[in-house]
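Notebook entry, structure prediction.
Reason for the run: the old model in the group folder had no record of what sequence produced it. Starting over properly, with the input documented here first.
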Amino acid sequence: MTKLIFLGSGSAFTLASNNFQSNLLLVSESGKKLLIDCGTDIRFSLHAAGFSYRDITDIYISHLHADHAGGLEYVGFSTKFDPRCSRPNIYLNKEICDDLWNHTLSGGMKYIQGEVANLDTYFKAHPINFGGSFTWENIKFNLVQVIHVNNDDSAMPSYGLFFEINGAKIFLTTDTQLCLDKIAKYYERADIILQDCETSRYPSQVHAHYQQLLTLPNEIRRKMWLYHYQQIIELPNAKEDGFIGFVQRGQVFEFIANSVLI
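New structure, fully documented this time:
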């Protein structure tokens, strides 16, 4: 049985006392683990779920905001200096890979005793071309370009995932605005949509807000789980509004032939 575990379901600035950042752990039938995004609180969210850096052999990075990539320094150093560990594989779009070392990691990780390090010192990088995919444990993950932060003349590279497990088609948005021109076809094809959802009173405009998602057709909302939300006094009644619901920290999706157990 393949399991998808939400180590956290909160936004970038969620309080660890209530939730953790929205990083996921996919556990294959053979027990291998793929970490989907690696935020700054990953050491705490892994521990809370009964795991550690030693369990992390494969990582997917959707984009370079700290709640999705800020924990790579911790994982990189921990596995580098623990003789029980090998370098984790890291899968990511080529454009993100080009920026990861120079603009995110090198400031803290370039200099180690007796060596000037590079990305290859810590990770086995697998850059993926635009429109490409990667395969892990016989599961094909298609990278889906989304619009997260867009300044008209340039957009921050950000990629969701579309994949299938035991007959269930899953669309994981990671971080995106409601850019239907790019993602509507994935909404339609998916059996389960894991959708980042802003719930703040003052929308940031770089995530799909709950009020925007309410405008989607019923047939889309009824396939949609909401995550990456802000901790507010009371969340909206997602079930009453036609969604499946809000994902809770630690929630597990179990995939068996042609069905999903929550």
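Summary: The domain at 2-261 is CATH 3.60.15.10 (Metallo-beta-lactamase; Chain A).
The old model has been moved to the deprecated folder.
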